Structure formats: structure tokens, C-alpha cells
Amino acid sequence: MGTKKGSKAASSDDFLQTLEDFTSKENWDKFFTLRGNDDSFEWYAEWPQLRDSLLPLLQDSSSSSSGSLQILVPGCGNSRLSEHLYDAGFRDITNVDFSKVVISDMLRRNIRTRPELRWRVMDITKMQLADESFDTVLDKGALDALMEPEVGTKLGSQYLSEAKRVLKPGGKFICLTLAESHVLALLFSKLRFGWKMTVHSISQKRSNLKTFMVVAEKENSVLLHDITSSFDLLSIGRNDNQGSGMREALESENQRRRDWNNGSDLLYSHEDLKLGIKGNLAEFTGGRRIKFTLGGQGSNFSYRAVLLDAQKQTEPFVYHCGVFLVPKTRAHEWLFCSEEGQWQVVESSQAARLIMVFLDSSHSGATMEDVQTDLSPMVTQLAPRKDDEEARIPYMMASDGIKKCDTVHEVTSSLTGKVVVEDVVYESTPSNPEGVSPSSDLAFRRLVFKRTEGLIQSEALLVEDGEILEQPQNEKTKTVSQSKRKGNKKRNQESSGPLMKVSHDYLASSYHTGIISGFTLVSSYLKNAESCGKMVKTVIIGLGAGLLPMFLHGCLPFSDIEAVELDPVMLSVGNDYFGFTQTDRLKVHISDGIKFIRDITNSKTPSEETANAVPKPQTTSSNGESATYNVKGGTCPDILIIDVDSADSSGGLTCPASEFIEETFLLSVKRALPQHGLFVVNLVSRSQSVKDMVVSRMKKVFDHLFGLQLEEEDDVNVVLFGLCSETVISESDIPESAVILEGLLKCQRLETKQSIIDATKKLKCWK
Length: 767
Hints:
23 helices; multifunctional enzyme; 31% helix; SAM-dependent_MTases_sf; alpha/beta; globular
């Protein structure tokens, strides 16, 4: 089986160019057809490097097995691994691959010399093999090949569930892997409770890439063990990113396992619960509360959930089990995100056991019927045992939290699809901002893409324009005329009253607050730019409704802002409905964002560096030493922000589009930025492995990486900040740097400035 796309460059084999997608059966058939049946290809370590590590493991398993050792090789490809094992005395080997071409070739190649080898055409994510039928499952790159970033974790998760199913108790899952962070995240989480795991390093003679061998032994218990290693963790990874990634993954996973063993309130999986690690779920246990994840194999979606067994029974329960769905727009509310609030919901539900399920942007295209159909078989497994097996499990749902919603405008774009502008009033809102009447309901204008309906692209506060119009004689005609001329304004009453307009000095989106708080990391540079009278160039990829560039334009008057937007419809919507206006220091380019950055990279020359240089002001760093900053202009941005959504979030990445986190693009960004530059990415993903992958790539490219977790989004939304300079402020310097940023922000609303400064306290150094 193949390895990852990122490793293609490490091989000179021309045939690799035929593989555009490592999960495609057609691509593999083409690959094996071109190679022929006598031309083997070893993706990772070859037999001489594997033999000394692998044979003792198999011999140990063989001695404890009652009969001959039953070995399964999933995704066998045309590797000679099974042939070598056969020649070493292991005859009971089943090889499976979904490529009929390679299975036919391997059968012809071995039918006479190794007649006992078995070859079967089979999808390793849905194997037609009996439960607990193998002593060893030997994976040489199969898991890696299924974990394409564009595909997400679904195929890898399904495959690991199958490997666990067909493995006997006491059997071993042996996985040869390049140990990319998103692969390890899935592997460690799927083989957690009831598995004893050890990691080995395989020496390589003709490759810069290390091969790791993860050995997991299936136990009959639900104990949680630390992962051990046969090598020195302190020595590995000092000089290479691959080894460093393995060390970090091991340390992080072991810490998580220790937290679990110490009773910490952590997130379990549905598979963990079925093992019985939190007791017998068929029995009702008053006061029991378990946070866990639902979904995966056989399910269309994944969910975050909480199981709660009622604390007390003041009157008979109406339901033995119920499901309560919480929409994304309300997941951050105290009633649903706090333990105390959740117990209140349990009490009002009149259910003995309540399973609270949190919906997010990945469920935006699904109807409630779709969600209920998907959840139903899983919920049935989680219900407490009851004499009446046909007892109904009701589905309840919190409202979406919106008191009133008016559609202001709809348009269909050939690039984005259906775009909706809507004005909403929420059932509960934060305290009234400055200048807004406390007696009036706060109204917000939102931009929503139907392709990701659960994700609000832009949101702005509506405030009185101060202009009160008299009742027109022909109201209908007058209203149409006004809407054409002032699409960004609306009446707050049907017949009369003040016009409302979008406020550009209020941040309704918490991630916008997070993005600007990260400017703290370069606040000393910004301060010196302002003192020199120089403009700081900020490039924003993704215009949305134009709210972020408009806010920066107003609160940082020394900023020169360029927004890059692929879809011209967005510019029209921003102009007509969100009050977006271009000025001499706020421009929009209708262009491809990736090409825009690469054009900057290609045009950057040493002479430009010299031409853009200005006198270097002196300042004092937090440790009292003199520091120098070179303030520049020209085509190179000082700050680059990526704020675009993904047209296809099925791989687990909602923002940004996957092209913007490819290593080649990140390298272009680093070349485009000056030494003092700041790169900002708004990352939205429910998948921990996807987030780990993005963070790993950012760490590899940038000298320093900071992250800001938005708590109210409950680990879905994180803002990443990459810095190019080898010297950077430490976490202990952030409060002092935040004071500098506070002095630079010219916000009309004090609470907006305070929210930005408060967010700086969440900035954490990740590299």
C-alpha cells in the first residue's frame, strides 16, 4: 500500500506520478498495471531493515498461539513482505487489497512457489472476515494511505475498527508508519483502552524518512496503559521534524492517559463506553455524567455528546431515555455548556437518562430527520435496560436561539452558491454595547452561505443611523428606492422610525477579536511604524462582508489594507448590505488568494528589501535590552490573514480551504513576509487529527507558532499565528505587549478594545 503525498518527493520512481489519490481504487489499479507483476515496490523499510525487529514479535506470538499463527496483511499491494514471512516459516498468511490487478498479479507470482499464501480482493474498511480470526494484523503503510488530509479520518477510523474486530484477544496489531501527527492522533485514540502499545524505530539506510513500528496488543481488560518506546525519547527528534513529531505525540498521549487514570473529566469515545470503562451502561446510575463522542463507522456524522443519569427522582420519569439536540448557535450558552446547566435540562426533560447531543457546522446540510436517523441505532445502544424493549426514545431540541429573523437579500453566485443576508434578533444577547438603547432588542446582520449554513460567515451589529424619515406618501415605492440606494440600511419598524446601519466599530464575531488580539505579537513593530509615520501593510485573503478590513481601517489608522476575494459577488454584497467602502488605504483585489501571494513571492528581490528600508528606530524590549525594528512598505505585507471557508468540509476542515494549509503555500507565505511579519490563520475543524496536521505543518514552516483557542466554540475554532523571526516575545511578555497594542487601537467603543485585550490572555506559545 502507498504512503502519503507529502512523501512522494522522497522517491524518484516515476510511477508515483500516477497516484493522485491514495484512497482511489482506480488509481491503484493503474499504478500496478504500469508496474507489472514482477516489479515489487517497497514503500517503507525493506526486509533487511524489518527482519530483526519483526520476526521476534511474530515468533513470540506464535509460541503463545494454540495453532499456526494466523496473519492478516491489509493493503498488501505488491510488496514482498508476505513472501519473506512465508519463507521464514509463517505459512498462514491472508493478503487483502482492493485492487483486483495487484491481487491477480501476486497470485500468479506465488501460486507455485508459495501455494499456501491466500490472496483476496477486499476493501480493508469493510472486510468480509470473521470476528477474532487473526493473531496478527500486519499493516505496512495501509493506515497512512487512508489518511489523506483531503479525506479526513473517516476511512482510517473505519479500517482500524475492522482491524480491532478481526483480531483475537492477545493478538497484535503491528503498524509500520511514517508517524505523521494526524495518523498518530487517530491510532493512539482508537487503540486506547484495553491495548498495550509499544513504539519502535526502524533504521533506514537509503532514505531521509524514518519508519516507526507501532505494536498494540489486544487485552481482555479495559486498562489504560502508558505507551512505551524501545528508543530514547530524549534523543529522538533533536535534529528532524519527523522524530520531534513522534516524541511530542507520545508525550501528549501519555499525559492524556495519565489524566484519565487520575479521574479527569475528559472526552471518551462511544467505542470506549461499549468496552465498559465507565461501568455498565445498561444499568441506571443516578448522578452519572460522561462526556463522549458519537459516530464514526457506519454513521454519516460525528457528534459531541454528554450522557446524564438523573441525580434525583422527585416524581416518576416520563421517559427511560431521551435525546436532547443542541444547535451550534446555542452550544456556548451556560444552560448547555456548564455541568450545572445540563442537570437543569435533565430535570426539565423528565427523562431518567438524557443524552445531550451538540450539533456543529458539519451537520449544517442535514435535516433533523437525517440526524435522528443517523443517531437512532447508537442511542439505542446507550439507553438503560428496560423491560419494555419497544419503549420510545423521544428527541427534543433547543430552539436556535433566534427570536426574529428577516431575510434581507438572497443571491446565487457561480463560485459560492446561494448567499443569504439576514437580520436577526437573538433570544438572549450580551449586555448592550455603548450607544445602544438598553430598552431595544439588539439586531445583527449576518452573512450565510447555504453550502455551510451552520457557519456564520460575517456578523455585524445594527445601530441607529440617526436619520429619522417621515412616513412617505407612497411607502412601497419609496422603500424600494431607498433599498436600492442604501442597501446597508434598514428601518427598525415596518412603517416608520430611524434607519439602522451596520456598526464598523463593534466586533460581533469572537474570532475577529481573536485575530486582532494576535497583533500583540508584533505590537512593538506596529508602535515603531506609527512613530515613523509609516504604513503597516495588511493583506486579508477572504473578504466576506468586509467587516474585518473595515474595523482595522477604523481602529488602526496607520494600516494599509488590501483584501483579496475570489468571488466578485462578495464585494457587491459587502458594498450594498454591510456598508463596505474602499478608500486610498483599503483596496479590494478580485483575484485568487494563492496566486496573489505567490506573485508577491516571485516579485520579491534583494533590491526591493533595500529600497523599502527606512531608518531603524530604537526601542527597549521587555528585558531592558535595546531592540531594532526595520519598518518597510512595498509589495510585501507585514501582516497576512487567511479568513476563507472551505467549499467542501467533508474532510473535516471547515476553514480555511485545504489549499491554504498545504506546505507549499505556507512556504510561499514565509518567503512573502519580512522578518517581522505575522501570518494569521482562522482554523475551524471538529477533527482533532486535522487540527494536529495543520499545527504540525505550521510548526515545520514558521520559526514560532502561537495559538488562541476560542472557548465559546468549544475547541472547534482556533486562531493560529506564525512568526518568521528567530527572536520573538515569550508568553510572559504578552501582558506588556498587550499594553502597547491597547495604546495603538483607536476604538470608539471601549468594550470592544477591552475584549481584544482580554483575548490576549489566551495566547499560548506552541513552538
